[in-house]
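Hi C.,

You asked whether I'd gotten around to modeling the 205-residue construct. I have! Everything is below, sequence then structure, no commentary in between.
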Amino acid sequence: DARSPPPRAPAPAQKAAARSLSAVRAGSRSRGPAGRRGSRSPGHSENAQAKPQQARRSASMGAASTTAGSSASACPPTPSGPEASGPRAFCQIIWCDQRAFKEDSANLRIELEAATRLPAKPHKSAEKCIRLLQKKRRARERVQPRMLSVFLVSWANAPVLVQYLSEAPHLAAKVVVLCDMHGARVREAAQRWSVQYGPLVAKVA
């Protein structure tokens, strides 16, 4: 009899996202809505090269997303009722990555949004992300409590965006720096760089 293949184990970065989400939940219970902190990072699959192009697309999961319009059908609805007072009601995920709108990142976005039950907002560059943050500053300052923004940022965009966030006290932010497209040497350099920003940079993934 034909047997179905065993389920694919989650990628290391997906496990990190699950652990970060648990940390947000635990912190929110003790601190209340205004003190939520956490981080999430996407998964990364590497089982591609021996398969056709279609399989390669589903496996090449960097930290990226598709167009904002595609998120409407991929992401679950915003929590309501009792769940609206939980940590997800006060948290948003923002992707800042040069790969943000590539088609082969669609599967990653689906997995990330399914795991966090939050829509991911994509930006292609740090400059574009900063312009939007500045534009929405007044509206965000009127919202109580402040929403926690979890930034998933590629290493190429991290220096500019993290510098801005470190000088923006009106933002409640946590940053996950994505080095999945680089080797160990670059990852170590990113970790050394992140120390100067303290708890703002929650993880180098």
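If it helps when you're writing up: The longest strand covers residues 148-154.

Thanks,
B.
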